[in-house]
Every structure is written in structure tokens, then in C-alpha cells.
Amino acid sequence: MSPIRYLHLDVFAATLGGGNHLGVITDARGWNDAQMQRFARWTNLVETTFLLPPSQPDASYRVRIFTPHKEIPFAGHPSIGSAHAVLESGLAKPVDGVLWQDCLAGVLPIRVEGEGPARQLLLKSPRAKVVSQGVDAHPLLAGALSGIGMGKLPPAFVEGGRHWWVAECADEASLRAWQPDYAAIGELAKATDSLGICVFARSNHPDYQLVVRALPAGVGIVEDPASGAANGLIGAYIAHAEPDGPLAQGYTVSQGREIGYNAQLLVRIDGAIWVGGKTNTIIDGHVHWNGAE
Fold it and tell me: Residue 32's CB: how many other CB atoms inside 10 A?
């Protein structure tokens, strides 16, 4: 197999190296399912993506998203990073400021704002709904939130493509210092078929208005440094609970500092929820891979 361009990206980064890793194969036309899965297992990244020509007439490109263990229909930072790779590789151009991503979850719009290092990409999150609310919404919830001083909004179980528990902490300092009970979060995730818990706190910092910690124990991840999907559901919950509040049109998120990262995500609310940010290309090279066992 001929060498193929490969990008290793830093997605949702506030500072260089502060975001989520993503590997992107820019031309996977010669790859079969087994080759993609084996390469994703070898990179051992949370997700690796593979770009293909679109299978739908209204799409700009097609992407397949693999964890080291399986293909998944959709995820936030792999979608944003893949769109960045498409633009960097010249595989497609936005039309009226939008790229259309063809993936297993359907054809999804990605806004392109700005150019070069200042470029921001924002993905429209799946429509979400609040399934239940309150600390008593599940008997395992209180244990999973032990050590958290509750904020203004009650905890909620939110569905939007995926299921997350969402909770507000009383203040930024308490959330950053929180020592989660990972076993309890894992039990809650398993019992409710959810990814886990994402907790947020409001902030008066000039660079961001929300701090987020996402703990997807349901898929075996201790803490996510930058989660587009989790932030999409938090945005949906805030829009539902405070439609006229100070965050009703959107805000900026700080995430990942507690585990050595420094991610920054944008959330825009205009009836839909858009989540995005900047992406840095860290490695631009080629892979030699035939997937042979």
C-alpha cells in the first residue's frame, strides 16, 4: 500500500498541546474495515478517523470513527478534528460557511468561522431532551456525586444521541478540587446505560464562563480532557432550564486542567446547540500500513 497522509491533531486546545488527541487518515479509499480497526487499535488513541468520499449527495466528505475496540457512529472531537483535516488537506471547501459531514449518525453540519490559526469549527449537536431531574432521580446518583456542593440547577439525566448525567457544582474552585469516586460513577453509568457524569460550574474568569469535568466511566475512560458530546448536552440542559439566563446564547468552556490538559470549547445556542473550538496540527506525515495480520 502506498504511503497515505496522516495528521495527528490537538482538538479543542486553548494552548498548544492542551486539547484532545486525534489521528486522521486522510484517504482511506483502499482500506477495509479490518484494516481501519487494526490501525485504530495500534494508535491506541481514544479515537482515530478515516476520511472517504461522501456517500450522500449533499455531503462534503465521509468519515468513519474508530476507538481501539470498535467503530462508533458519532463523537464530538473526532468530528471537529476530521473537518479540520479535510480543510487542511484540501479535500472539500465550505459552502456558505458550512461543511457537511457524512457519518453513521447521518449528514451533520459543521460551521467554519475564520481562517488559519484563528479558525473555529462548530458542530451542531444532536437534539437533546431532559429525561429526569433531581438528586433522587436514581438511587446511585448521590453516591456518584459525593463531595460536590450542588449549584443552582438540579442534576439531570439528559439524552442526545448518548446519555449523560449532568450536574452543576456550586463554584469553580470546588469543582477543580473535587476528588471523584470513580467506582461509584462507573456503577451509575452501568446501571443507567449512560456514559457517566459531566459536572459544570459557572465562572467569572475573563476567558471562560463555565468549567466542565466529564467522567465517562461507562466507556472505561477516567476523565475526558475535552468532550464535545458532553458539552453539547450541558448546553442543551442550560438552554432548557434557563432560556432567558446569562448563558442562553452561548459561552466558553474551560476543561481538562485537572488532568494536565488545557482545553477551550465554544458553545453557541441559537435554537440548536453548536459546540466547537480550534484545532492544531501537531504531526503532518505519512503512514505505511497494509493491515496484514
Answer: 10
- Say if CB 210 and CB 200 are below 8 A apart: yes
Those residues whose C-beta lies under 8 Å from the C-beta of residue 264, and which sit 6 or more positions away, are 12, 13, 14, 18, 207, 208, 252, 253, 254, 255, 277, 278
Partners of 285 in beta bridges: 6
Q: In this structure, which amino acid lies at residue 119? A: R
- pLDDT truncated to tens, each residue of the chain (293 aa)? 689 999 999 999 999 999 999 999 999 999 999 999 999 999 999 999 999 999 999 999 999 999 999 999 888 899 999 999 999 999 999 999 999 999 998 999 999 999 888 899 999 988 899 999 999 999 999 999 999 999 999 999 999 878 999 999 999 999 999 999 999 999 999 999 999 999 999 999 999 999 999 999 988 889 999 999 899 999 999 999 999 999 999 999 999 999 999 999 999 999 999 999 999 999 999 999 875 44
Domains of the chain, by residue range, sit at: 4-124+278-287, 129-271
4-124+278-287 with 129-271: one CATH topology? Answer: yes
Phi-psi region of 177 (alpha: psi -120 to 50; beta: other; left: phi over 0): alpha
Distances in Å between the Cα of 22 and the Cα atoms of 47, 78, 104, 110, 280 are 6, 7, 18, 17, 10
- Which CATH number is associated with domain 129-271? 3.10.310.10
Q: Which CATH superfamily is domain 4-124+278-287 in?
A: Diaminopimelate Epimerase; Chain A, domain 1 (3.10.310.10)
